[in-house]
Design goal:
The complex is a heterodimer of chains A (about 450) and B (about 290).
Chain A (H helix, E strand, L loop, with lengths): L1 H17 L3 E7 L3 H17 L3 E7 L3 H13 L6 E5 L3 H6 L4 E2 L1 H7 L11 H7 L9 E6 L1 E6 H6 L11 H14 L4 E5 L4 H10 L6 H4 L13 H16 L2 E3 L8 H6 L3 E7 L3 H7 L5 E4 L17 E8 L4 H15 L1 H11 L6 H9 L2 H4 L5 H6 L16 H17 L4 H22 L2
Parallel strand pairs in A: 1-2, 1-3, 7-8, 7-9
Antiparallel strand pairs in A: 3-11, 4-11, 5-11, 6-9, 6-10
Chain B lengths: L9 H28 L2 E3 L6 E3 L3 H8 L1 H33 L5 H9 L6 H12 L5 H8 L10 H29 L3 H9 L4 H31 L1 H7 L11 H11 L3 H26 L6
Antiparallel strand pairs in B: 1-2
Helix pairs in contact in B: 1-12, 2-12, 3-7, 3-9, 5-7, 5-10, 7-9, 8-9, 11-12
Classes of the chains: A alpha/beta (about 450), B mainly alpha (about 290).
Chain lengths: ~450, ~290
C-alpha cells in the first residue's frame, strides 16, 4: 500500500513538473470515428488556452464506462467528467452525493449557462423536477429509417419515397422480396430503444406511470398495452415470413451488416449511425426517412425521443479542475464546436444556435436527409408520454426487454406474454432500485 | 506416505507463510467480503447501506430465472466435460498408437490451448454468426437454419463446442501422458494370453487411466462451471433469453452490469458453497473408487 502511494506521489510529481496545466480526466464510450472526433475537440480546447488539459480516456461501451466510473468513485479515484448514456440517468440522479450538478458548477464558476439555449426535448431528459440541468448534453441521437434506394428501384418502388406507415413497410418488404430485389425487407438496431420505447413515444403511449418515471422513482412500466403487443406480434409474424430479420440484442450488432450487404433493404437505427452507413454503403445509394407508425393509432406520429449520452461532473476532485471543466463546457456549447461535432456524426444539433449555424453554412441543403432526426424529434411539442423516460435500474430493464423479445421470436412466448414479463420483471427491478436508494 | 519431521516448531509455519498469506489476502478476505455484502443492500455508489438479512437469498430462490440458471449450468457443465474429455481420449489413443509423427500431432492438438479464451470465443462467434459466419452459411446450404441469436439449442451447442474446444488440448496432454505410462508389457502379456485388441483396451487401459481421468474430471467440471466466462461473454452473452446464462455469468451480469451488489454477492456465496460441496463429493466418494 505504501509502495503504491509512494509511486503515485512520484508519478504526480513527475506529471506536475512536466506541465503546469491542470489535467482533467474525461471517461467516455466513444469508439472508432466518434472517439477520434471527441479527441479532436479535446485537442482543440487544450490548444485554445494554457491552464487546463482535457484528457479523454476511452472506457469501452456505455455500460462499461458507467460501471468503471462507479467502481472508481467507490475507490475514491473517480474521473472529473464521465459520459453516461441516457438510460443511466436514473442511476446518476439518485447518486446525489456523487454528482456535481452542471447548473451549480456553472453558477459556482461564474460561467454563462442558459438551459433555454438547448433543445427542449434534450433538456427535459436531464433536468431535475425543479427544472435544473444536472448534466451537460453532449451527444444526443434519435432513431430514423435508412433505406437502400437501388433495391427500391429494382423492386419497382419509388426510390425517393420511404415508407411512412408500418402497413407500407410490410407492403414494400413483400414487394422487395417477391421481386427478388433483396432477400429481406427490413431489420432494426436496438429493439428496446427503437421498437419499444421510441415506438411508444411515437404513438403517444405511456412507457410508465408518473409521467414515464420523471415524477417519482417509485414508478411502474406500462409497456404491455395493446398497441405495443400488436407491434411485437407483427415483428414476430414478419420474422417468421422473412420480411424482418432480427439483428441481435442491445444495439443489434448483426443489423447493420445485413443492411450494408444489401440483404435487408431497410434498417431502423440511431441517427448517429449515419457516418457508418454512408461509409459502408459504397455499392448503393442511401435514403433517409422518419420512423414508421400505425396510422390507425390516434396521436401518431407524435415525436421521437433521444438516446445518446451526457457528461456528468463527479464530486471530490481538486477545485482547480472544476474551474477548467466549466470553461470546457462553455467551449463545448459554442455553435461552431457543436456543429463540427454533430454534422459528420449524425447526432442531433442540441442547441438552437448550432442548428442555425449549420443552416447558415448550408449543411442541410448540401446533405439531404440530414434534417430528418431534428424534424422528427421536434415534430410535435413533447407530451407527458413523449418527453423521454427515467427509471431506476433501467440498464437492466433494457436487457429484460431484449430477453423477452428473444423469447417471443424463439417461439416460447406470445407478444402479450413477453410484454407482461417485461413489465413484471422491470417493475421488480424498479422496486429494488427504489429500496436501495431510499 | 512419507512424513517429514521438523525439529523446530517455527520452521514449518515460516515455510508455509507465503502461501498462507496469499490465500488469506486473495481468497479468505474477498470471500469474507462477499459473505458480508450478501447480507446488505447497497445503492450503486455505496452511499446507503442497509442490512437486509437473508433477503438477497430469499429473492434468489423466488426468482425462476435463477433456478433456470442452475439447469443451464448443469447441462452446460456436463456437456462440456463429456465432449472435452471424450474427444481428448479418442485423440490421445490415436496418437498413442502412432509410431512416427506422434509429436507433430501432439503439437498440433495442443495448439488451441495457447489461444486466449476470449479470442477462442470470438473465433467461434465469427464462424457461427448467422449473418456473416462461414459455418452458419454451410449449414444453411445443407438445409439447417442456424441461429444461435434466437434458438436456445443452437446457442447452447455453440457455447459447449467453444468451451470444450479449448479444453480438449489440456485433457489430451494428460491422457497421452497417462497412456504412455501404461507399461507395454501388460498389453503384450494380455495378447499372449489370447485377448483381442478390443478386450485388451477395455480391460487394461481404463482402469490404469483412472487416476488421470479422475483428475481431469475435477479439473473439467471446475473449468466448465467457473472458467468459461470469457467464452460465454464473447459468443452469446448469456442469451438468447438467458438460455446460456450460467451461474458465473449471472454473477457478473447482475453485479458488474446491473450493479446489484447484494444479489451478486449472494450468488457468489451460493457458488462458493457449490464448489466446496463438489470438491468434497469428488474426493470423498469418487476418489475411493480410483486405484492409484
Amino acid at each position: 500500500m505504501t509502495g503504491l502511494l509512494l509511486s503515485t506521489a512520484a508519478f504526480a510529481v513527475i506529471a506536475g513538473a512536466a506541465s503546469a496545466q491542470t489535467e482533467i480526466q474525461l471517461w467516455h464510450a466513444m469508439g472508432g470515428e466518434l472517439g477520434q472526433r471527441l479527441e479532436a475537440i479535446a485537442t482543440d480546447f487544450n490548444a485554445s488556452q494554457t491552464d487546463y488539459k482535457i484528457v479523454p480516456v476511452f472506457k469501452g461501451t456505455y455500460a462499461e464506462t458507467l460501471t468503471a466510473g462507479i467502481a472508481a468513485f467507490r475507490a475514491g479515484e473517480q474521473p472529473a467528467i464521465m459520459q453516461v448514456f441516457e438510460v443511466g440517468t436514473g442511476t446518476m440522479m439518485a447518486a446525489k452525493g456523487a454528482v456535481y450538478p452542471v447548473y451549480q458548477l456553472m453558477a459556482d464558476q461564474g460561467e454563462p449557462f442558459d438551459p433555454a439555449a438547448f433543445l427542449p426535448s434534450v433538456v427535459g431528459y436531464y433536468t431535475d423536477p425543479e427544472g435544473n440541468m444536472l448534466s451537460m448534453p453532449f451527444n444526443s441521437s434519435t432513431p430514423i429509417l435508412y433505406y437502400n434506394k437501388n433495391v427500391f428501384e429494382a423492386a419497382g418502388l419509388d426510390p425517393d419515397t420511404p415508407p411512412k406507415t408500418w402497413a407500407e413497410v410490410e407492403a414494400f418488404s413483400r414487394q422487395i422480396m417477391a421481386s427478388g430485389a433483396a432477400p429481406c425487407g427490413f431489420t432494426t438496431g436496438w429493439v428496446s430503444w427503437i421498437q419499444t420505447e421510441n415506438f411508444s413515444a411515437w404513438h403517444n403511449l405511456p412507457i410508465g406511470t408518473n409521467g414515464n418515471g420523471f415524477g417519482n422513482v417509485d414508478s411502474e412500466l406500462l409497456f404491455n398495452n395493446e398497441t405495443v403487443a400488436r407491434h411485437w406480434n407483427n415483428l414476430k409474424t414478419w420474422q417468421d415470413e422473412g420480411l424482418f430479420q432480427y439483428g441481435g440484442p442491445v444495439g443489434g450488432n448483426d443489423a447493420a451488416p445485413k443492411f450494408y450487404a444489401q440483404e435487408c433493404a431497410m434498417i431502423m437505427n440511431s441517427s448517429a449511425s449515419r457516418a457508418g452507413v454512408l461509409a459502408n454503403a459504397t455499392a448503393f445509394e442511401v435514403g433517409f426517412g422518419m420512423l414508421p407508425y400505425y396510422d390507425d393509432v390516434a396521436g401518431a406520429p407524435q415525436n421521437s425521443i433521444i438516446g445518446g449520452a451526457t457528461l456528468w461532473v463527479l464530486q471530490g476532485r481538486p477545485a482547480e479542475e472544476y474551474a477548467g471543466m466549466a470553461k470546457f463546457f462553455t467551449y463545448l456549447s459554442s455553435p461552431e464546436v457543436q456543429a463540427d461535432w454533430f454534422e459528420p456524426t449524425g447526432y442531433l444539433p442540441i442547441t438552437q444556435a448550432s442548428y442555425d449555424f449549420s443552416v447558415a453554412r448550408g449543411f442541410f441543403t448540401a446533405n439531404p436527409g440530414a434534417d430528418i432526426p431534428i424534424n422528427q424529434i421536434t415534430l410535435n411539442p413533447p407530451t407527458e408520454n413523449s418527453k423521454g423516460l427515467r427509471f431506476g435500474n433501467y440498464v437492466q430493464i433494457r436487457d429484460v426487454i431484449d430477453e423477452e423479445f428473444q423469447a417471443l421470436l424463439g417461439g416460447s412466448k406470445t407478444a402479450q406474454e413477453a410484454l407482461d414479463a417485461v413489465v413484471a420483471r422491470g417493475n421488480a427491478l424498479i422496486d429494488e432500485f427504489a429500496a436501495a436508494n431510499q | 506416505m512419507k512424513r517429514t519431521l521438523f525439529r523446530n516448531q517455527l520452521l514449518p509455519w515460516l515455510l508455509l507463510a507465503p502461501q498462507l498469506l496469499i490465500t488469506a489476502v486473495f481468497f479468505l478476505w474477498p470471500a469474507g467480503q462477499a459473505v458480508w455484502s450478501s447480507f446488505l443492500r447497497q445503492d450503486a455508489f455505496g452511499f446507503t447501506t442497509t442490512f437486509v438479512g437473508w433477503a438477497n437469498y430469499t429473492a434468489l430462490w423466488a426468482d425462476p430465472l435463477y433456478l433456470a440458471s442452475f439447469r443451464v449450468t448443469l447441462v452446460f457443465s456436463v456437456a462440456v466435460t463429456v465432449l472435452a474429455m471424450g474427444t481428448a481420449l479418442i485423440l490421445a489413443v490415436a496418437v498413442d498408437r502412432l509410431i512416427r509423427a506422434g509429436s507433430t500431432y501432439t503439437t498440433l492438438i495442443v495448439w488451441p490451448y495457447a489461444v486466449a479464451p476470449a479470442v477462442a470465443g470470438i473465433l467461434w462467434w465469427f464462424m457461427f454468426n448467422p449473418t456473416i459466419g462461414i459455418l452458419a452459411y454451410v449449414m444453411k446450404t445443407l438445409g439447417y437454419d442456424w441461429n444461435h441469436r434466437l434458438n436456445a439449442g443452437d446457442a447452447m451447442t455453440l457455447v459447449v463446442i467453444a468451451a470444450a474446444w479449448k479444453q480438449v488440448s489440456y485433457n489430451f496432454l494428460f491422457f497421452v501422458a497417462g497412456l504412455q505410462s501404461i507399461p507395454a508389457s501388460l498389453r503384450e502379456a494380455a495378447a499372449i494370453d489370447g485377448a483381442g485388441p478390443v478386450k485388451r483396451f477395455f480391460t487394461i487401459t481404463p482402469p490404469l487411466l483412472a487416476p488421470t481421468t479422475f483428475f481431469l474430471l475435477v479439473v473439467n467440471i471446475v473449468y466448465a462451471m467457473f472458467d468459461t466466462f470469457p467464452v460465454i461473454d464473447a459468443t452469446t452473452s448469456g442469451g438468447p433469453a438467458q438460455a446460456t446464462n450460467i451461474l458465473v455469468y449471472k454473477v457478473y451480469k447482475d453485479g458488474f452490469i446491473g450493479l446489484n451488489l447484494g444479489s451478486s454477492a449472494a450468488q457468489s456465496v451460493v457458488l462458493m458453497a457449490i464448489v466446496i460441496a463438489l470438491t468434497i463429493v469428488q474426493f470423498r466418494y469418487v476418489e475411493r473408487r480410483v486405484n492409484y
